[in-house]
């Protein structure tokens, strides 16, 4: 029935487009923290912690304790963003899309309302506000990534595109900064964001399924408000997915959750994500004080470089699909004899994992170099690497492990990497204390730590070669 097929195609395109807008404009706003700190300082948040100090007979204003508070807020928010992905993943796998999104919308709206009604006198309100804003945003991303299942051979491309949009949404705080400089208050901006929850609710009930979008997609699959089409499709997906068409055909035994969790692939993927994520978090958390040091406190230069950094974040949505295309490049091509689709996907992921690790090392080297103009290149490499990192993380989990465990495994890996990312605060304290504000040695140490990320692509490559060798050995005796 062409009419129904066209209607379904339009609905899927709307689901994809509105999901992209949601991730791009809302989900990862907290990672634009560097731009928002500029506004918060202008509003006097934690300004009581600034004290006058005398250096060489000159009195200067020392705001290092204020910077520590802002860094701590971001550390806690980024930790909560990742660590609470674990229960959020279980929530999504257990109760489905609608329940998970309603919980996310509640958290996101609560966060925006708390920021809207905060002030310099209520600076501590930022601690819970930014944290729940971050957790609500990651739930938007988790529930949107399944949209890739609607597009078959472009599945990894869609997943990485959504993750790139999530990264680019950090530019939301840049928009708030520019509006603030034009006379629009924080109160007004965040009340508007709260009102946008109507959009999220519309997508939840009209353009997304109540439970999940399965993969592979069944024929004539429908979801959301179907405008006259049968709703039985979504309700019976779980049943039909579990029953083979041929009753005599062997049922493929999926790996259990525990087996996936303890696998070598998962362990090295955790190391790969954790070391690079720590590098990015410390860069963002120390961005403002580092710029203060490199510009010698010149406000116009700090604002100029802050804006440049925030504008580059918009490019995340443009960079991420390249990673997806790298992972999907083998789709539609003939596979080797006996090679499974999962093995082909794993083999294709090796290049993506390697390029991501290489980008991180280059980004870290540039960030370590105390030369102000070079920071423009640092910004470009940072957004490129961040897009590849998170898009590649989600795409790798989706191809390396059974889809029924995606939410749980994604939650576990983000939670464990969050625990590792807590090292950013002692690193920041070390820079401010024993190193007298000079981050050089910490940056060098993190650059060396980033080299561990190269082990993961090597491990996946050896795993694929081992599988190919097993196939060859199984064919040889029979010939």
Could you name the key traits of this structure?
mainly alpha, 71% helix, two-stranded antiparallel ribbon, 479 residues
Structure in words:
With 479 residues, the protein is mainly alpha-helical. It has 22 helices and two strands. It has helices at residues 2-27, 33-43, 64-83, 85-95, 97-116, 126-145, 155-168, 172-181, 186-195, 197-206, 232-242, 257-261, 264-285, 287-294, 299-313, 316-328, 341-368, 375-400, 406-421, 424-432, 440-450, 455-478, and strands at residues 51-55, 58-62. Strands 1-2 form a two-stranded antiparallel ribbon. α4 runs antiparallel to α19 and α16 (316-328) crosses α18 (375-400). The chain is globular, with a radius of gyration of 24 Å. Mean pLDDT is 84; it is low at 227-233 and 236-251.
């Amino acid at each position: 029935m062409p009419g129904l097929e066209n209607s379904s195609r339009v609905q899927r395109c709307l689901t994809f487009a509105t999901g992209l807008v949601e991730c791009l404009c809302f989900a990862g706003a907290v990672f634009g923290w560097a731009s928002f700190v500029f506004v918060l300082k202008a509003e006097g948040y934690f300004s009581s912690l600034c004290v006058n100090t005398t250096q060489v007979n000159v009195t200067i204003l020392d705001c290092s304790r204020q910077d520590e508070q802002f860094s701590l807020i971001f550390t806690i928010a980024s930790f909560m963003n990742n660590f609470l992905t674990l229960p959020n993943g279980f929530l999504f796998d257990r109760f489905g899309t609608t329940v998970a999104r309603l919980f996310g919308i509640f958290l996101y709206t609560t966060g925006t309302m708390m920021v809207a009604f905060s002030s310099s006198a209520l600076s501590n309100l930022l601690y819970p506000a930014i944290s729940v804003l971050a957790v609500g945003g990651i739930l938007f991303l988790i529930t949107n990534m399944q949209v890739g299942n609607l597009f078959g051979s472009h599945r990894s491309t869609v997943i990485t595109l959504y993750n790139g949009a999530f990264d680019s949404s950090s530019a939301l705080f840049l928009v708030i900064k520019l509006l603030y400089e034009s006379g629009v208050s924080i109160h007004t901006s965040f009340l508007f964001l709260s009102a946008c929850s109507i959009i999220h609710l519309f997508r939840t009930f009209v353009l997304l399924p109540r439970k999940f979008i399965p993969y592979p997609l069944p024929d004539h699959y429908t979801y959301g408000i179907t405008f006259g089409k049968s709703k039985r499709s979504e309700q019976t997906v779980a049943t039909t997915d579990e029953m083979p068409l041929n009753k005599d055909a062997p049922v493929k035994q999926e790996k259990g959750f525990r087996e996936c969790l303890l696998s070598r692939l998962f362990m090295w993927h955790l190391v790969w994500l954790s070391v690079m994520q720590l590098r990015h978090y410390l860069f963002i958390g120390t961005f403002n004080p580092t710029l203060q040091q490199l510009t010698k406190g010149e406000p116009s230069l700090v604002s100029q470089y802050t804006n440049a950094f925030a504008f580059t974040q918009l490019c995340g949505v443009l960079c991420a699909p390249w990673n997806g295309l790298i992972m999907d490049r083998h789709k539609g091509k003939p596979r080797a004899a006996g090679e499974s689709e999962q093995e082909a996907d794993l083999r294709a992921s090796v290049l993506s994992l390697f390029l991501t690790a290489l980008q991180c090392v280059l980004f870290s080297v540039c960030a370590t170099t105390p030369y102000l103009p070079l920071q423009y290149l640092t910004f470009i490499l940072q957004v490129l690497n961040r897009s590849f990192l998170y898009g590649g993380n989600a795409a790798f989990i989706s191809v390396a492990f059974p889809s029924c465990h995606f939410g749980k495994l994604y939650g576990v890996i983000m939670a464990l990497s969050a625990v590792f990312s807590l090292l950013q605060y002692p690193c920041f304290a070390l820079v401010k204390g024993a190193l007298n504000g000079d981050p050089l040695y910490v940056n060098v140490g993190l650059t060396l730590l980033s080299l561990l990320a190269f082990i993961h692509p090597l491990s996946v490559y050896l795993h694929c070669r081992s599988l190919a060798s097993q196939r060859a050995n199984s064919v040889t005796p029979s010939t």
